[in-house]
Design goal:
- This protein is an all-alpha fold.
- The chain has a domain of about 50 residues.
- The protein is about 55% helix and about 0% strand.
């Protein structure tokens, strides 16, 4: 007879890590949403909305914050 080891699979990250990762992904998605748009339908017409503060300052900042949160979520100890 074979002995069966019924062990639970060990996850690499804990529940807290996944929650922090989801928050980081939300920041990154928000950053890309703010970057979208501002173009022009007619290539002959220049649209100044492409240089809006949301696209130049806010969106890249949100993406960088999201990446920082993702790095933190990877490095945080899941046992605490």
């Amino acid at each position: 007879m074979e002995t069966q080891n019924s062990q639970k699979p060990a996850f690499l990250f804990g529940k807290r890590n996944y929650k922090i990762m989801i928050i980081g992904i939300i920041f990154i998605i928000l950053g890309f949403v703010f970057m979208a748009g501002g173009g022009s339908d007619n290539p002959e017409v220049f649209n100044k909305e492409i240089y809006n503060w949301q696209r130049i300052r806010l969106a890249p900042t949100l993406v960088i914050i999201g990446l920082g949160v993702e790095i933190y979520a990877i490095l945080v100890n899941p046992k605490k």
